[in-house]
């Protein structure tokens, strides 16, 4: 498949997935590399990326504030038209190089007045703080797309204009189906996203 061709894949994890193939009903549970990134860390532990990268990686917070989210985020968080969100934008680095741009969005009603709205890192990462506020992932939806890098992305990734990138829209919902976080990630390629399904 041409890597520049848009490819969207929706992956539902942390909950039984119903998939109708022809007239056959198949159920299963997805597990993937995202799992550590939606769960709170142990007290005093670093965020998931710092742990996974074994000291080679880090992240730089570039912006925190109120914003009108893009349409896909507005839909994912079920925000009313014109409703604002709190965004936390970060550059994810490995060996000093930017390999991912990650924007996390939260409903303003949830994030205002919490450290999510402050321009500083959160110990243990946002999932740890969210768990303390009563928000834990009971269901995760991920949509993956391959497309060409924008001029700004190409510059920040130090790659050529139009080089392929992967984008991932991750929506975290509680066990009762309430969306509380939507993340838009743009990843420098090559990149592998791994998913595994247990079939009932």
Describe the structure.
With 200 residues, the protein is an alpha+beta fold. The protein has a seven-stranded antiparallel β-sheet with strand order 1-7-8-9-6-5-4. Strands 2-3-10 form a three-stranded antiparallel β-sheet, with no helix packed on it. The protein is globular. Residues 1-26 have low confidence and may be disordered. A hairpin with a 2-residue loop joins β2 (16-21) and β3 (24-32). Helices cover 16% and strands 44% of the residues. The chain is built from six helices and ten strands; from the N terminus they run βββααβαββααβαβββ. The relative contact order is 0.22.
Structure described in brief:
The protein has 200 residues and is of the alpha+beta class. The chain is 16% helix and 44% strand. The relative contact order is 0.22.
Task: Walk across the major sheet and give the strand order.
Answer: 1-7-8-9-6-5-4
* Number of separate strands: 10
Query: If helices are DSSP runs of H or I spanning 4 or more residues, what is the number of helices?
Result: 6
Q: Structural class of the helix and strand makeup?
A: alpha+beta
Helix share, percent? 10-25%
Give unreliable regions as ranges.
Answer: 1-26
Question: Strand count, sense and closure of the main sheet?
Answer: 7 strands, antiparallel
Strand content: 35-45%
Order of helices and strands: EEEHHEHEEHHEHEEE
Rounded mean pLDDT is 84
Distance between the termini: 31 Å
Q: What form results from the Cα inertia axes? A: globular
- Multimerization state: single chain
Could you tell me the radius of gyration in angstroms?
17 Å
């Amino acid at each position: 498949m041409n890597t520049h061709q848009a490819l969207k894949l929706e992956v539902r994890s942390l909950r039984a997935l119903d998939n109708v193939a022809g007239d056959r009903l198949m159920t299963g549970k997805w597990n993937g590399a995202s799992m550590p990134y939606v769960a709170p860390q142990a007290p005093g532990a670093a965020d998931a990326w710092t742990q996974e990268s074994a000291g080679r990686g880090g992240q730089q917070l570039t912006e925190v504030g109120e914003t009108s989210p893009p349409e896909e985020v507005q839909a994912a968080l079920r925000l009313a038209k014109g409703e604002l969100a709190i965004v936390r934008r970060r550059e994810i680095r490995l060996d000093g190089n930017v390999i991912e741009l990650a924007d996390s969005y939260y409903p303003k009603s949830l994030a205002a007045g919490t450290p999510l709205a402050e321009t500083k890192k959160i110990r243990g990462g946002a999932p740890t703080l969210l768990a303390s506020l009563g928000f834990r992932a009971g269901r995760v939806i991920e949509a993956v797309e391959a497309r060409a890098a924008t001029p700004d992305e190409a510059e920040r990734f130090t790659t050529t204009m139009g080089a392929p990138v992967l984008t991932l829209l991750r929506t975290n919902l509680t066990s009762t189906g309430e969306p509380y976080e939507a993340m838009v990630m743009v990843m420098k390629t090559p990149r592998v996203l791994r998913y595994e399904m247990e079939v009932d």
